[in-house]
Amino acid sequence: MPPLAEHLEERGIDAKRRVKVLFPLPLFKPYDYLAPADCAVAPGSFVRAPLGPREIFGVVWPGEGDDAPADKLKDILEIAPAPPLSPSVIDFVEWTAGYSLFPIGAVLRMVMRSSDALRPPKMLTGYVATGEAPPRLTPQRQAVLDAAADEPLSARVLAERAGVSDAVVRGLAQTGALRAVEIDPDPPFAAPDPQRPGVALNDEQQAAAARVASHIDKGGHAVTLIDGVTGAGKTEVYLEAAAHALAADETAQVLILIPEIALTMPFLKRIEARFGAAPAPWHSDLTGAQRRRTWRRVAEGQARLVVGARSALFLPYTNLRLIIVDEEHDNAYKQEDGVIYHARDMAVLRGARAGFPVVLASATPSLETVINVGEGRYDAVGLSRRHAGAAMPDISLIDLRETPPPAGSWLSPPLTRAVDEALSAGEQSLLFLNRRGYAPLTICRRCGHRMKAPNTDTCLVEHRFSGRLVCHHTGFSMPKPDACPACKVVDALAPCGPGVERVAEEARQRWPNARLQVLSSDATPSPAAMRAALDAMREGETDILIATQMAAKGHHFPGLTLVGVVDADMGLAGGDLRAAERTYQLLTQVTGRAGRGEKRGRALLQTYQPQEPVLAAIAAGDRNAFLAAEAEGRRALSFPPFGRLASIILQSTDEKALADAAAELKRAAPNGDGVEVLGPARAPIYMLRGRARMRFLVKARRDVSLQAYLSDWLSRVKTPSNVRRTVDINPYSFL
Ligand code: ADP
Predict the structure, then answer these.
(1) Residues forming beta bridges with residue 17, ordered by sequence position
(2) What is the pLDDT at residue 111?
(3) Which of 50, 439, 494, 664 is the most buried if burial means most Cβ atoms within 10 Å?
(4) Which residue has its alpha carbon closest to ligand 1 atom 15?
(5) CA 625/CA 584 separation, integer angstroms
(6) Cβ(362) to ligand 1 under 6 A?
């Protein structure tokens, strides 16, 4: 008998009431169940209930029950011993589903990401020294007793620390020199101390911090952009804001969102130094046990400071009072798999719904945010100078039409001269190319065959590091063949174009005595390798760093004075609506790494199109001119943020079914005032993992509810089961 029913029967209770349970599955609504009348389920309670052949955990959802006949209803089986979800999390799940048009159960699944967190974990046995001396005190035993002097530790950890076998620990427990105690495998997080003094802020920083603090004190929702040049000390300002929010309410929780997991380690250390306690981390690289610990401690309200990637928005906070979105312009905030959402936008929604302030920080704010500031919806504070008087780097363009690199190489004479100069001055250089691998294209010199991924319309990228050809869209990889698969001629496959590995090869030949380091997700795949590479750069142990965008963001390398951008034109080729903006942001970020220490920095951008407005604006350091031109371009086309946009993507392994479904969907599109439906058209990557893909683009005026239009439209058509339909509100990817 299920435990709850048993418990109630013992107490002679059989009265029941109807509750709605939402499951973390792609379902559009909760289902009705029966719960014993007097048991403590309330909206937000985690309960286990039968669903088809399975028994799974879901959440009791607020609102009225549906009309399912009472005699068809099943009983809930168990109430999980976990704190219920707070009403503000439930509200956020509802609004995220309504905004993204994904099933509400799929959004709930993002909240229930730690599968084993609903039951308390099994206690572990730990040992602590009793102070009693064992009859025979060997050096090994002494080492264990020393390790167990302060806090109880498991036998394995003790043995590891003392460098002995587990048997020594157990032996000591038998003599009474160690006492066994229970230890929690998910220990509480140390409390952040908001009173601890931070660095002394300069005038601008003080004014900025005071402004954010005033929003916190006023209470209610407000968005503030901290708009400061790279290295201005934005982080110090928002940590001050976090301290203010933590001090203002002793149960308050604060979330700091960061775009890249690669940045977390140094960042966590920085926060620990500021608050005297490590924050609770949340990102995809955590182990199951670490996830469970953060999830549970956040759900209890015990973890008060959380640092995480975008999914940390969906943790079960009890009293979230402030969200800080660092590098708010970063595209990594857009989640493209599963429920598609933009974490910056959802953070603002979360704050607006629950009535608390949100802080956005960036040196290159998104056009969306800039327009929101311009129209008075967001507040903004500026930091115009680098901390401690460091100057902004000199930025200039290298026109590759005038000074091309020698045949077969990628670095032009002006750039190699600059690296020579940096090397002889004992300074560091960064060569930046945002392309992983050795060569983006492998082509047969005999028959022209291009190496492509199977069942996918993408070119394979050669990776010399691993000796493989890799598809960056699907992860498919294969050894590089000796012969062309089409014409069978041996040794005719040639690499075209550079990736970081190829630039590294050239640098190694040119500067054989320099200390080189490649930083990319292939060259430094593990977090430890990446940390080591970044540490070496920070400590000045690397002369030339050759890196993808992993090096562009957030890092502080005091000895770096030269940034060389190998291909400044690269991001402009894609041609989607944010191509210029993205290029502007990335190049500003990467050039902003130069000269953050005592010496002035410079950046050289290799380009074939020096007349491109984006590049001219970067070279002139004229952000406002760039943003004004960009805004004009988008306004003319009614693209976001001046109009609304959504994509609908249909995909299927059956091309005929796909074409029919697309045609039927098109026919069903209602006429809407201020709405324009473009497509269906073949997606630029038409075939992906064996699935053919078609896209619609829906444009709407800003005063039109795009969600209402889409819901109405999509509810008119049932897509066949072999065609998958995905909605992407405000798309960032058009592939
Ligand atoms: P940003 O986030 O704007 O790029 P950071 O906050 O990382 O800049 O600051 C750049 C560097 O300057 C960091 O090493 C930071 O600790 C230091 N810094 C910034 N403001 C101050 C300050 N007021 N006092 C001391 N150091 C500061």
Answers:
(1) 35
(2) 97
(3) 439
(4) 233
(5) 12
(6) no
Q: How far apart are CA 43 and CA 75, in angstroms?
A: 16
CB-based burial of residue 53 (10 Å sphere; 0-12 exposed, 13-18 middle, 19+ buried)?
exposed
Which ligand 1 atom is at minimum distance from the Cα of 592? 4
> Is 559 near ligand 1, meaning CB less than 6 Å away?
no
User: Residue 385: CB within 6 Å of ligand 1?
Assistant: no
Distance in Å, CA 595 to ligand 1 centroid: 13
Probe target for ligand 1 pocket from 227, 236, 593, with the most ligand atoms within 8 Å of CB: 236
Q: Which CATH architecture has domain 4-112?
A: 3-Layer(aba) Sandwich (3.40)
What is the percent of the chain with per-residue pLDDT over 70, rounded to a whole number? Answer: 97
The fold adopted by the segment(s) 643-729 is Alpha-Beta Plaits (3.30.70)
Q: Tell me, rounded to whole angstroms, the distance of Cα 697 from its chain centroid.
A: 26
Q: Name which residue sits closest to atom 20 of ligand 1, judged by CA.
A: 233
Ligand 1, atom 25: closest residue by C-alpha: 199
The answer to whether the beta carbons of residues 617 and 633 sit under 8 Å apart is no
Across residues 199-224, what is the average pLDDT? 96
C-alpha to C-alpha distance for 600 and 561, rounded to whole angstroms: 7
Domain covering 390-435+500-631, topology: Rossmann fold (3.40.50)
User: 600 is written with which tokens?
Assistant: 């002035």
For residue 192, how far is its CA from the centre of ligand 1 (angstroms)?
A: 20
Q: Three-class SS string for 236-274?
A: HHHHHHHHHHHHHCCCCEEEEECCCHHHHHHHHHHHHHH
Which pTM was predicted? 0.90
Question: Ligand 1, closest atom to CA 237?
Answer: 6
Kindly state the average pLDDT of the residues 419-438. Answer: 95
Q: What distance in angstroms lies between residue 677's CA and the mean position of ligand 1's atoms?
A: 47
For the Cβ of 228 lying below 6 angstroms from any atom of ligand 1, the answer is yes
Site to substitute for ligand 1 among 274, 387, 553, 591, most atoms within 8 A of C-beta? 387
Q: Per residue in 168-193, pLDDT tens?
A: 998 999 998 999 999 888 899 999 99
pLDDT at residue 13 tops 60: no
| β-sheet with 153-154: strand ranges across | 153-154, 124-129, 178-183
What DSSP assignment string belongs to 100-132?
H---HHHHHHHHT--TTTTSPPPPEEEEEE-SP
Which residues, in sequence order, are CB contacts of 150 under 8 Å at separation 6+?
none
Residue count of the chain: 735
Determine the Cα–Cα distance for residues 93 and 354; give it in Å rounded to an integer: 12
CATH of 203-388 among 3.90.79.10, 3.40.50.1970, 3.40.50.300, 1.20.1730.10:
3.40.50.300
Q: Please indicate whether residue 234, judged by its CB atom, sits closer than 6 Å to ligand 1.
A: yes
